[in-house]
UniProtKB/TrEMBL annotation:
Entries under PROSITE patterns matching the protein: GP_PDE (PS51704)
Stated name of the protein: Glycerophosphodiester phosphodiesterase
One Pfam family hit: GDPD
GP-PDE domain span: 9-280
PANTHER family from the UniProt entry: GLYCEROPHOSPHODIESTER PHOSPHODIESTERASE (PTHR46211:SF14), GLYCEROPHOSPHORYL DIESTER PHOSPHODIESTERASE (PTHR46211)
Length: 284
């Protein structure tokens, strides 16, 4: 082991492995699992019939999704036109969201639908047994924002129980961290299940220590935009909140990956697990 590196950070596959397979699809999660990630990161929204759907946006993204009829979606189409919260899951499932993403040239297109959270968990748990590897962790981001309430998503008090019910039913709650930018979700989760691992997500402009203080409790993990991370910021946070885990997002370039390994963060969220894993193999 390199003596300058304190410990091996966890590898968190962002939306599965967005750089390699269409995001938040069964293909992406299973490929990331085969690569050897420690944690699968994914996003969840709610359909009109209250199904927990794995999707980053609560609408169809025109960059890589087709309409239920199989037609391209105009890039300037208003989100309300393809609002998943107004669509029953049977319609959502008809949409191919496995088109090539223009921002990820290494991504292999794979016709794919937006799966249910329960479907992803069942497929991954089965694959873990088949591969004979240790169980994987789950980072589940609830896509809640105050301006989304009752337009693109239920209110937090209705949203959170739907997600917790799926995680409980699948028996993976103890291996799950609940992520959110919306403090309301995390506060509700902490009151309902104080032992549940939680992660406060932060944009680059949001201060680390003040944001944790405003939350009202110390979460398990802080998930900052990697652009805001520095030796000074990491040191100050560890001094203020000893034991608070740091898992930055989304780190993709080799130089940045090396920098965060040296920083001694607890995990690294990346679209390219195939870049991070070899680096860790050289060090640990």
């Amino acid at each position: 082991m390199n003596p300058t590196v304190r410990h091996r950070p966890e590898v968190h596959g962002h939306r599965g492995c967005r750089g390699l397979r269409p995001e938040n699809t069964l293909s992406a999660f299973l490929h990331a699992l085969e690569l050897g990630v420690d944690v699968l990161e994914m996003d969840v929204v709610i359909s009109a019939d209250k199904q927990v759907v794995v999707s980053h946006e609560p609408w169809l993204n025109p960059l890589f999704c087709l309409s239920p009829e199989g037609h391209p979606i105009a890039v300037d189409a208003p989100p309300q036109q393809h609002n998943l919260y107004r669509m029953p899951y049977v319609s959502i499932r008809q949409c191919d969201c496995g088109q090539s993403h223009p921002g990820f040239p290494e991504q292999v297109a794979d016709p794919s639908y937006k799966p249910l959270l329960s479907e992803v968990l069942a497929a991954v748990e089965s694959a873990v047994l088949r591969l004979g590897r240790r169980p994987v962790g789950y980072s589940i981001e609830i896509k809640s924002e105050p301006e989304y309430d009752n337009i693109f998503s239920p209110s937090p008090s209705d949203f959170l129980p739907l997600v917790l019910a799926e995680l409980t039913s699948m028996g993976v709650l103890s291996r799950t961290t609940l992520l959110c930018f919306d403090a309301r979700i995390l506060q509700l989760a902490h009151r309902a299940l104080p032992s549940l691992a939680t992660c406060l997500l932060l944009e680059a402009h949001q201060p680390w220590i003040e944001s944790v203080q405003q939350l009202g409790f110390v979460p398990t993990t802080l998930g900052p935009d990697f652009h805001s991370a520095s030796v000074t910021a990491v040191t100050a946070l560890r001094t203020a909140f000893p034991g608070l885990r740091i898992v930055p997002w989304t780190v993709n370039e080799p130089d940045d990956l090396r920098r965060f390994i040296r920083l001694g963060v607890d995990g690294i969220t990346t679209d390219y697990p195939d870049r991070l894993l070899p680096l860790l193999g050289q060090l640990f």
